[in-house]
Protein: Ribose-5-phosphate isomerase
Amino acid sequence: GNYSSGHVCFRRSCSGAMAEEAKKRAAYAAVDNHVQDSHVVGVGSGSTIVYAVDRLAERVRQEKLKIVCVPTSFQARQLILKHGLPLSDLDRHPELDVAIDGADEVDSSLTLIKGGGGCLAQEKIVADCAKHFIVIADYRKDSKCLGQQWKKGVPIEVIPMAYVPVSRVITRRFGGETVLRMGINKAGPVVTDNSNFILDWKFESVHNWKEVNMAIKMIPGVVETGLFVGMAERVYFGMQDGTVTFR
Ligand code: 5RP
Structure:
């Protein structure tokens, strides 16, 4: 191959590996700083949380920690089972010591967009049950204002029969556009763990996320929004230089 294609390839894999390392370091920092013996731990969803569960399992083995894990999705449940960690639920553990989860974007006041993986409703429920909600992310999620990094919009979980009216109300009242999230080969809509659909709302300009979040939640047919306002206590960012910062 010529130099230029080789060069592009190298840079791609290099930046991918850098982001993975950043996710891993953020996840390890969160688990090491916030999980203690006898904790009930909420386990988020996505690719960053995989590293957090790796670290939880390692600490359980090495330090003989006794923890209990509450999943936020089918994926999280599978991760917990794969590592042989004790699995629980909100029936038995409605109060969590800490919940750790990823995010699609984090703004300067720790408002989050979540739901890239479609698990936003359970993620928000579990986060709300936790005394401390800790977020882990790589440097690409760090943003001054929402929408600067994450271009797919705010995920909104809706009851299937209501997706058209909900979509019309949102765009009429708040502008932008909504897209019904489709699955593989666009053969049909993505169906969430709760058997609902996801609308991705590509917003134009929003100044008050707290108000917009509450207004969208009030629309009949909306189950939950991927806006997490005033919930994250701390966000760990894995940086490009291999360090971890938090805010
Ligand atoms: C899933 C989520 C995830 O936490 C979010 O999409 C981040 O995922 P990743 O760690 O793979 O970037 O909200 O609903």
